Amino acid sequence: MTAQPTESLTLKLNVVSVEAEIYSGEATRISVPAALGEIGILPRHTPLITRLRAGEVRVHGSDGRQVLIYVSGGMLEIQPQVVTILADTATRASSTDKAAADEARRRTEEALSKLERFGDRDRAHAELMASIAELSELQRLHKKKRRW
């Protein structure tokens, strides 16, 4: 009798933005804000390529921790054991604070109102969406803490 190979219960996730690699690690499941709705990803997911909208990527790590990453849009590629997110802009929740998010949103809104060229306007819009997503999550986490 031959031993059957054990199937991996995790998948590799890589989140990369224009600025840097934001996250690279193992996950048991991932939730992403796809263009047509939220997608839940588990190991051995069917291959898929789709656009992402601004929102929160929730990573359930193999160590039991949850990591939150905010993306302003981008592309998602799913392979059975590897998921890659190419984000326009992205930031991890642990590296944000309310004052910084408020200031980034204010600066981005101001710059957006003054821009003429499409490329600059699109970039500023992506930064604004990332700031709004950060603020939204910070407010949600603050409310959650008060309930405990």
Q: Tell me the β content.
A: 35-45%
Number of domains: 2
CATH topology of the largest domain: ATP Synthase, domain 1
Helix content: 25-40%
Mean pLDDT comes to 78
CATH H-level superfamily title of the largest domain:
F0F1 ATP synthase delta/epsilon subunit, N-terminal
Question: Architecture of the largest domain, according to CATH?
Answer: Sandwich
Total helical elements: 2
Radius of gyration from the alpha-carbon trace, in angstroms: 17 Å
CATH class of the largest domain: Mainly Beta
List the secondary-structure elements in sequence, H or E.
Answer: EEEEEEEEEHH
Structure explained in plain terms:
The protein is α+β, with helices and mostly antiparallel strands and 148 residues long. It has two domains: 11-93, F0F1 ATP synthase delta/epsilon subunit, N-terminal (ATP Synthase, domain 1); 96-147. Helices cover 32% and strands 39% of the residues. It is built from two helices and nine strands; from the N terminus they run βββββββββαα. The chain has helices at 98-114, 118-147; strands at residues 11-16, 21-34, 37-41, 48-52, 55-61, 66-71, 74-78, 82-87, 90-92. Strands 1, 2, 3, 4, 5, 6, 7, 8 and 9 form a nine-stranded mixed beta sheet that branches. A hairpin with a 2-residue loop joins strand 2 and strand 3. The protein is globular.
Brief write-up:
The protein is an alpha+beta fold. The protein is built from two helices and nine strands; from the N terminus they run βββββββββαα.
